[in-house]
From TrEMBL:
Residues 265-405 form the Flavodoxin-like domain. It holds the Pfam family ODP. CDD domains: flavodiiron_proteins_MBL-fold (cd07709). One of its GO terms (molecular function) is electron transfer activity. This is Flavoprotein. The lineage of its organism: Archaea, Methanobacteriati, Methanobacteriota, Thermococci, Thermococcales. InterPro entries: Flavodoxin/NO_synth (IPR008254), Flavoprotein-like_sf (IPR029039), Metallo-B-lactamas (IPR001279), ODP_dom (IPR045761), RibonucZ/Hydroxyglut_hydro (IPR036866), Rubredoxin-O_OxRdtase (IPR016440). It comes from Thermococcus barophilus (strain DSM 11836 / MP). Gene3D superfamilies: 3.40.50.360, Ribonuclease Z/Hydroxyacylglutathione hydrolase-like (3.60.15.10).
């Protein structure tokens, strides 16, 4: 059974985390492999004459959410519900909360959120909806709530709430990540180190298509002076950031900008009968000779890595090497899908070398080249061998790796 956490985060004002550890999920958004699971975080703030709920959980956990919430408050006493983002992993349990609340609470969100809530849960869900304007401030229970829109983090509806007097930032998807951390916050460095790669994987798979908005929205928060003043970041997934709140946005910024880790080259290939693998092994040898650290994902008749894991490796790679067989006059289907997703979700200005093998006609290389040329990636070279790479092919491959390294300026 998924674990439910009801944790007091602050005494004054009284702030609680309601977290469920979804260890049943296999594919986030019915697509991304996450054997590591995910958490859904909601928050309850008790103020003078006001009880504010920030978001909820996925519909599957409605019963557990109501049970947890009812341990802290009678749902009828909730005066405000802030809906930062309507994706149903945060809003699925809301209908039941509203019903138990007898539709008394004021729902606060963006105009997009109103439209989507109505589409998902019917007109009753938005009967008592207040539409905020970007930057609007509202006094609730004696505190100043500032609402700031952060469109495309992760949907156009998305906003954050900043409580001015307390320096609390409720950030929903922004600042979140996959996996089920052992702790609720960033106090344990070992937990943080284990968690951050899952944050990267989450950013790329969920928000990656809009990654330029990550950088833009964080810039916006910086200009407003909010990140400087924030004492705690309370996201809708994963760890709360209170030891070092700035750290999670620094991580988001680095992923959004595709800041590379020195020496890391991501190598992705398929090999049906070992011919592409031979070409790749030559490239790996040349890379290592020059001090590079290849991170390798391969599709063979014995293994098929998770595409979501591959995507999570792109942002901090210096360069990519793609190896593919020609398959029915196209790119091998596994590599074709990975590439499609890389270009869609992790489209960065990084050099790419294409290697391949074919039987009667080489087509994969040309097709990959076309995809790369249309993206932000920088095509370096394409070398394809007919079947087993010959000595001459080997020299061409080594030369192309050296060309790739030159691009990296070392
Ligand atoms: Fe966690 Fe975009 O929902």
């Amino acid at each position: 059974m998924p674990k439910v956490w009801i944790e007091k985060i602050l005494d004054k004002p009284e702030l609680y985390l309601l977290r469920v550890d979804d260890n049943q999920i296999k594919y986030f958004e019915a697509t991304w492999e996450i054997p590591e699971g995910i958490t859904y975080n909601a928050y309850l703030l008790k103020l003078e004459n006001a009880v504010v709920l920030f978001d909820a959980w996925k519909k599957d956990y409605t019963k557990e959410f109501i049970e947890a919430l009812s341990k802290l408050v009678d749902p009828k006493e909730i005066t405000h519900i802030v809906v930062h983002h309507t994706e149903p992993d945060h809003s699925g349990a809301l209908s039941e909360v509203l019903r138990l609340n007898c539709y008394r609470a004021q729902i606060i969100g963006t105009s997009f959120a109103k439209r989507l809530l109505e589409a998902f849960y019917g007109s009753k869900a938005v009967e008592n909806f207040y539409t905020i304007k970007d930057g609007e401030e509202m006094k609730i229970g004696g505190k100043t709530f500032r609402f700031i829109t952060v469109p495309w983090l992760h949907w156009p509806d998305t906003m954050i709430t900043y409580i001015v007097e307390e320096g609390l930032m409720f950030s929903c998807d922004a600042g979140g990540g996959y996996s089920i951390p052992k702790t609720i916050d960033d106090s344990d460095e070992e937990v943080v180190q284990e968690y951050l790669p899952y944050v990267t994987k989450y950013i790329v798979t969920v928000i990656g298509h809009y990654h330029k908005y990550i950088v833009q929205n964080i810039e916006k928060l910086k200009k407003l002076g909010i990140i400087e003043k924030t004492k705690m970041i309370l996201p809708g997934h994963g760890l709360i950031w209170r030891k070092n709140p700035k750290r999670i946005f620094e991580h988001y910024e680095a992923v959004g900008a595709g800041v590379p880790k020195r020496g890391k080259v991501l190598v992705i290939y398929d090999s049906m009968y070992g011919f592409v693998e031979k070409a790749i092994e030559i490239a790996l040898d040349e890379l290592k000779k020059h001090g590079y650290i290849p991170v390798v994902y391969r599709f063979t008749d014995k293994e098929a890595p998770a595409v979501s894991d591959i995507l999570g490796e792109v942002p901090d790679s210096e360069a990519l090497i793609i190896g593919a067989s020609t398959y029915e006059a196209n790119i091998h289907p596994r590599v074709r899908y990975v590439l499609y997703e890389i270009v869609d979700k992790a489209n960065y200005e990084k050099p790419v070398l294409i290697l391949g093998a074919y039987g009667w006609a080489g087509v994969a290389g040309r097709e990959i080249e076309t995809m790369i040329m249309r993206s932000k990636f920088d095509h370096v070279d394409t070398i394809e061998a007919r079947g087993n790479a010959t000595e001459e092919d080997e020299e061409r491959i080594r030369e192309s790796v050296r060309k790739l390294i030159q691009k990296l300026g070392k």
